[in-house]
């Protein structure tokens, strides 16, 4: 990878900053004099022979990359389902990366933008590290991040709002007359675990319900683990009348355990999941779940990227997709018609 | 798309067959004399200037395309989940196409192989038309088809075996003592509908059970439609004791309708689905389902393509992935532990 001229050697030769070279190579609007210097340096160094220079002329690969943490996760697939038609309609192919949420893999993807094999990138990292921010600041193609990035990061950004989502669920349970609302969460050292745990406490207080730490049980974001956490919680707090589960898989585990324990859902215990995956409608009783708008986030990201590709330089935008409570039988007892 | 020299004009100029030109442009082993003629003709016609010729030298784009009918269908996603790591480990990026099973879109994808934006293609068409076969015969990069192609088609081919799959299900129900086994199928003019309907009749006969056309109801491959078909079937044949459903969504509709009718599953009516999607394990009771090996088919397709990319010319191969019955509570009444 270290062969041939690099952005650094071109910057040195042209007597301009690396950022300027990056801007020129990205085809972003730049002062004419700078463009001239960079192009001259690039040609002197033989840079014209490689793929970057080729795409400098044609400017477009008609490809856009989508880097998701896990190709098996329904939330990312819901994004992909929306990203795909928007980009296809605009004449772009999608290059898919599954990074397994490994930071080094994500950095690789950002780094490889320098090869100009795509015109832009949509990335959905689980965590945004300092290394991410550094790469984003010098990315050689437009990037849209699905997830939260710090203020001032020079990329378009699409966010969910799980805090409001948890509040919607707790308000719904409270309105149904539930007063002993348990929370089954994933590990608090994950971004979603931390956010959802804090939101639960806030939402209880907003309803005027006392926070009781006995009502919180930590498990993991999987069905079996979630079920075990629910079993432990039921042992400790036999009179709980509702469960806020930090995702749908935990909620499915809750249904398993409540059924085995002879507790009726929702008559004895109402259950709410989160993410509104396909599994929520398939379960029985069907699961009330908080949608964090994966589909809408995917669509917004694709539209932001297209806008950036078509209109070039503008201020970075932040789009926050509001959550939505999808009410089903696990809280109201009324089964929908089959779908 | 009709500008500049084409494979046909090169073949004419070189005095060789179109297939030979295709082989040379694909970098497949070809007689030295033929390579020389084709390259000379290509250069005379100015073909060296375009992307095809460029990739002739570097030979590789390090990209492979996967064209699936529907990015929302869990069966294709199960394939993708397996294709992705195999190709990633070999240094390939995946370019994703969702064709919505529109033949013209699939033909476009095959046609665009001429642009050499990928080194190879895995395609999973719902139907294989004459136009497909014609394009496959002259494809400018290696192609693996997931689905059945006629004997002699010059591509690697990975197949499912839904016929044996239906037989596994019927044998299982028969072994459990079920004798009035209904079938809820999708439209018989679709490839899966036709195959599964015929397989049901065969499998009954192999068990020594009489075929009764009253036991068959046609619906569609969706939950609500499947449910309606089951309701009609129950009205007509109140004493049926088992249901073979042509996919998992139909089976979920069956569970809805049986529950509403007060029929216990599996005590009164045992239910089997097909495809073994994630929904099968999420439903209650969890669903016995025939896996047609989507994951294994994806893996096999990726491995066949890699082998072809690494070793070039060899006879086309056919891999048939055997089906597998995944037994859950909807036939045996025994719930698994949560997973």
TrEMBL record, chains A, B:
Domain of life: Bacteria
PROSITE patterns per UniProt: HTH_LACI_2 (PS50932)
Protein name: LacI family transcriptional regulator
Ranges of residues in domain HTH lacI-type: 5-58
Matching SUPFAM superfamilies: lambda repressor-like DNA-binding domains (SSF47413), Periplasmic binding protein-like I (SSF53822)
GO molecular function, one term: DNA-binding transcription factor activity
Signal peptide: none
């Amino acid at each position: 990878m270290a062969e041939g001229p690099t952005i650094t050697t071109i910057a040195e030769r042209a007597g301009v900053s690396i950022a300027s070279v990056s801007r020129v190579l990205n085809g972003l609007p730049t002062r004419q004099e700078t463009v001239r210097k960079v192009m001259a340096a690039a040609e002197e160094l033989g840079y014209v022979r490689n793929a970057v220079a080729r795409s400098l002329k044609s400017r477009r690969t008609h490809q856009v990359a989508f880097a998701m943490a896990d190709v098996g996760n329904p939330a990312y697939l819901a994004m992909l389902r929306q990203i795909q038609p928007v980009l296809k309609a605009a004449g772009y192919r999608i290059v898919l990366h599954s990074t397994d949420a490994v930071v080094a893999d994500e950095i690789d993807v950002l780094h490889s933008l320098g090869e100009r094999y795509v015109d832009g990138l949509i990335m959905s990292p689980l965590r945004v590290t300092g290394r991410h921010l550094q790469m984003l600041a010098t990315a050689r193609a437009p990037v849209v991040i699905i997830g939260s990035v710090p203020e001032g990061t020079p990329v378009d950004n699409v966010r969910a709002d799980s805090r409001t989502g948890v509040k919607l669920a707790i308000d719904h349970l409270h309105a149904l007359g539930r007063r002993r609302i348990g929370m089954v969460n994933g590990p608090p050292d994950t971004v979603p675990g931390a956010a959802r745990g804090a939101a639960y406490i806030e939402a209880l207080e907003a309803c005027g319900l006392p926070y009781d730490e006995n009502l919180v049980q930590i498990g993991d974001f999987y069905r079996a683990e979630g079920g075990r956490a629910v079993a432990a919680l039921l042992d400790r707090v036999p009179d709980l009348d509702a469960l806020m589960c930090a995702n749908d898989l935990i909620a499915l585990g809750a249904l398993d355990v409540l059924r085995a324990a002879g507790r009726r859902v929702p008559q004895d215990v109402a259950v709410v999941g989160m993410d509104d995956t396909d599994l929520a409608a398939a379960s029985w009783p069907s699961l009330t779940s908080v949608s964090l708008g994966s589909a809408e986030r995917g669509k917004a990201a694709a539209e932001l990227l297209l806008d950036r590709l078509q209109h070039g330089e503008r201020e970075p935008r932040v789009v926050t997709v509001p959550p939505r409570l999808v009410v089903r039988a696990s809280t109201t007892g009324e089964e929908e018609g089959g779908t």
